[in-house]
Write a structure and sequence with these properties.
Strand content: 15-25%
Bound molecules: flavin-adenine dinucleotide
Distance between the termini: 13 Å
InterPro entries: FAD/NAD-bd_sf (IPR036188), MnmG-rel (IPR002218), MnmG_N (IPR040131), TrmFO (IPR004417)
Organism: Primorskyibacter sedentarius
Shape: globular
CATH class of the largest domain: Alpha Beta
Largest sheet: 6 strands, mixed
Radius of gyration: 22 Å
Structural class: alpha+beta
Oligomer: single chain
Protein name: Methylenetetrahydrofolate--tRNA-(uracil-5-)-methyltransferase TrmFO
Keywords: Cytoplasm, FAD, Flavoprotein, Methyltransferase, NAD, NADP, Transferase, tRNA processing
Enzyme class: transferase
Length: 451
């Protein structure tokens, strides 16, 4: 093998990418800046360090999308999953991990691989040639961040996420909510009905503001706040500035008529906007928040129409470097403008240890196949990996793109399955069965491609 694969960043994604490519017979160099250059969250120089919680979330591969991702990674001989299983801690249905031995084992396993070497250095520029995967995560160093921004444009690289909560469409009560764009703006019927509206009367609004002010909030890390406060204030901060601020901001009731009560003027309106092309997910417009997760669900379910809302992801504001992947990456996670560079992990706009490692797994395999010169079978969209990569590279709305966890809202609906809460168990089982079969076929088709 003459060509090497260079991977920048030895976190969740970079470690998994290196393992997959090295097992396919490709020589891999991991460029990792720690321990020489530190981040505010990492504590060691280990590869695969978990920066905060020690949980890989649900391990249920029949009823949970992240559990399905675990299953798919295990089938693909994933290093991150095998090491997590080896250092598993008791945590009910979740997969919790003993973090230090986990990262030590990831490091030792990669170091012992004959095809892997590690170069401890910060990469500060985008390489002009060779085969590269950039997996530098939410805390990408400033110099490399600046180089990526220079290549992609200021709008295309974010340094913070401001995530508004995302809700499964099927859990919204449409006997209270309705579809309408403000002032019926738009050329087509689809545009004129692009928003989903939830009305509030005065009492409901006042109670909502009280709950918002009283809710438990997460504190900002030191040095974390710079850059937030232009255009993406958390809703609770807006409420603190005045009880009417939200009613004149994201909750303004103008230009809308409630077809359920055409004679009653709403005092405030919460708007939701479609979050994916499938129309299975909606985000609450302008509702980025630092409320703690438990408080968030309680407060948001006070909104008429959202009493039974189920959340595909909750809101948050964090330091997070990520690309506008729907506009920048192709379906193989290559940068359109420099296709010798792939991106993987959280910097692509997925969120979480497992999702990041999964994107590393894909990038490692895809890069290896390209280097070997072997045709790779198309990744099936109906797998957890496929649904996630399809979302970030095309299915998501580019204008409002924010990082995403894996969830069943990203999956193509199944014909003939019952919607709503009642059919959920059967539906999720059908999603996971469909995914497992497609993933197994995809892996089997690679045996002649990758070693
Ligand atoms: C404060 C914080 C808390 C979080 N808490 C959680 C949590 O509880 N649960 C969860 O699932 N996710 C959490 N996340 C998200 C988490 O970071 C990701 O889930 C996961 O670690 C991302 O994997 P990754 O491989 O993309 O990035 P990382 O695991 O961060 O790996 C990126 C690697 O790139 C290296 N690097 C950066 N720039 C350069 C450079 N220029 N040259 C060379 N190396 C470089 C870094 O040192 C790092 O080792 C948190 C993130 C942050 C910032």
């Amino acid at each position: 093998m003459t060509q090497e694969l260079h991977i920048v960043g030895g976190g969740m994604a970079g470690s998994e990418a290196a393992w997959q490519a090295a097992n396919a017979g490709v020589r891999v160099v991991i460029h990792e800046m720690r321990p020489k250059v530190e981040t505010f969250a990492h504590k060691t120089g280990n590869l695969g360090e978990m920066v905060c919680s020690n949980s890989f979330r649900s391990d249920d591969d029949e009823q949970n999308a992240v559990g399905l991702l675990h299953w798919e990674m295990r089938q693909a001989n994933g290093l991150i999953m095998a090491t997590a299983d080896r250092h598993r801690l008791p945590a009910g249905g979740a997969l919790a991990v003993d973090r230090d031995p986990f990262a030590e084992t990831v490091t030792a396993t990669l170091m012992a691989h004959p095809n892997v070497s590690v170069s401890y250095e910060e990469v500060t520029a985008l390489p002009e040639d060779g085969n590269w995967i950039i997996a530098t995560g939410p805390l990408t160093s400033s110099a490399l961040g600046a180089a990526i921004q220079a290549e992609t444009g200021a709008e295309a690289l974010a340094f913070f996420d401001a995530i508004a909560p995302i809700i499964y469409a099927e859990s919204i009560d449409m006997s209270k909510a309705w579809m309408q764009s403000r002032y019926d703006k738009g050329e087509t019927e689809e545009e004129r009905t692009a928003y989903l509206n939830c009305p509030m009367d005065k009492d409901q609004y006042e109670a909502f503001i009280d709950a918002l002010l009283a809710a438990d909030k997460t504190e900002f890390h030191e040095g974390e706040t710079a850059g937030y406060f232009d255009g993406c204030l958390p809703i609770e901060v807006m409420a603190e500035r005045g009880r009417e601020t939200l009613r004149f901001g994201p909750m303004k009731p103008v230009g809308l008529t409630n077809p359920h009560q055409p004679d009653v003027k709403a005092y405030a309106v919460v708007q939701l906007r479609r979050d994916n092309a499938l129309g299975t997910l909606y985000n609450i417009v302008g509702f980025q928040t630092k409320m703690k997760y438990g408080a968030q669900t309680d407060v948001l379910r006070m909104i008429p129409g959202l009493e039974e809302a189920r959340f595909a992801r909750l809101g948050g504001i964090h330091r997070n470097t990520f690309l506008n992947s729907p506009t920048l990456l192709d379906a193989q996670m290559r940068l359109h403008s420099k296709p010798h560079i792939r991106f993987a992990g959280q910097i692509t706009g997925v969120e979480g240890y497992v999702e990041s490692a999964a994107m590393g797994l894909l990038a490692g395999r895809l890069a290896a196949a390209e280097i070997i010169g072997a045709p790779m079978p198309d990744l099936p969209q109906d797998t957890a990996h496929g649904a996630l990569v399809h979302h970030i590279t095309g299915g998501a709305e580019a204008k409002t793109f924010q990082p995403m966890n894996v969830n069943f809202g990203l999956f193509r609906p199944l014909d003939g399955m019952k919607g709503g809460r009642r059919g959920r168990k059967d539906r999720y089982k059908a999603y996971t069965d469909r995914a497992k079969s497609a993933w197994s076929d995809w892996l089997a088709a690679q045996t002649s491609v990758l070693a």
